[in-house]
Write a structure and sequence with these properties.
Layout (H helix, E strand, L loop, with lengths): L1 H11 L2 H12 L10 H31 L7 H25 L19 H7 L9 H7 L3 H9 L4 H22 L4 H23 L3
Helix pairs in contact: 1-9, 3-4, 3-8, 4-7, 4-9, 6-8, 6-9, 7-8, 7-9
Length: 209
């Protein structure tokens, strides 16, 4: 319900174009920061690599539970975290490839060649490069699984985990919006997909515990 409400607000107040217009004007009527070192290497590649590094650390910890049997009670929790992060990111990638929705920079309004259409209409047009949902933001939002992981331990650390994942997704998604790669609605849907996937997997793996 919240997701639908936010989507309707974005549509009603035309927030996708409003924010994109602002970022575009800020850069002098072009995506001047698109290939800047900070946007491309630090946020785009750096954020993705950091997420992969964290996933690799989780994998090592999982392997350690098979070596040190006294830690095997953490095995299911680590499996959950890996599956939730990887699964959420995979869902985003599949949706991007399947829906073929445009990036802002593809529209004539922002220096491209396509006529602008809202996301709901683009689903049927299928003439974009595949920019929805937002893949880069998922490098942060996928770690919302930390909140549910903390819940499985009944740990207060679930709240810092949630805040950290939300902030990471917000920063990485915002950096892509500034580059002209995504609208804000793309990020909202990425957040929703990661949240509901992590929740569903949590219920599947821990509900009967």
């Amino acid at each position: 319900m919240l997701l639908i409400s936010i989507s309707l607000l974005i549509s009603a107040y035309n927030l996708d174009q409003t924010l994109a217009d602002y970022f575009y004007r800020l850069q002098g009527g072009a995506w001047s920061w698109k290939n800047s070192w900070l946007a491309e290497n630090f946020f785009h590649k750096g954020g993705r690599n950091l997420s992969l590094l964290l996933a690799f650390i989780c994998l090592l910890l999982l392997v350690a539970t098979y070596i040190e049997t006294s830690q095997q009670h953490h095995r299911r929790h680590l499996l959950y975290l890996l599956f939730a992060v990887a699964g959420g990111s995979l869902l985003i990638s599949i949706a991007k490839a399947s829906l073929s929705i445009s990036c802002p920079w593809e529209f004539a309004r922002y220096g491209g060649s396509l006529e602008y259409h809202p996301v709901a209409e683009q689903i049927f047009l299928r003439n974009g490069a595949g920019c929805f949902p937002a893949g880069q933001a998922s490098a942060g939002y996928a770690w919302i699984a930390l909140y549910f992981l903390g819940g499985s331990y009944n740990s207060p650390w679930r709240w810092p985990g949630l805040v950290g994942a939300l902030l990471a997704g917000l920063v990485l998604g915002g950096a892509q919006q500034i580059r002209g790669a995504h609208f804000i609605s793309h990020d909202i849907w990425t957040l929703a997909i990661c949240w509901f996937f992590s929740l569903a997997l949590y219920l599947l793996m821990f509900k009967k515990s």
